[in-house]
Amino acid sequence: MPSFSQSSTINVAIKRSTDEVYEYAFDLDNFPEWVSFCTSIRKENETWVMETTYGSMKIKITERNGFGVIDHYVSPAPDMVMYDAMRILPNGIHSEVFMTVFQGDWMSDEDYQQAIEMSKEDLHNLKSIMEGSF
């Protein structure tokens, strides 16, 4: 059974509707545009595979839903899964995007801090793209 994981939640306000942000972020074909370490992505049968600066990684996300939930399960190796919880919530007529980054048992504190910094960059990229300033 996995032990309790350290976590950190980051957020960004985006001046676009929750539907627009959700649809863009949910489409894995858009990952190379806003996910900092993703250089390309492709679907092999029913599995999504990202090419990254760290090598190939499989990725799964939650099914499309009306709650703004897009959780990511990234597997850099068969026995490793990085879980990031993403929520897109209304903030007036705009959106607030939250991402919770969990420290896997196999991640050093340094690796975990790097994952947090990359996630901050990713949310900044998403904001820039969605607001048209990328």
TrEMBL record:
<dbReference type="InterPro" id="IPR023393">
    <property type="entry name" value="START-like_dom_sf"/>
</dbReference>
<protein>
    <recommendedName>
        <fullName>Polyketide cyclase/dehydrase/lipid transport protein</fullName>
    </recommendedName>
</protein>
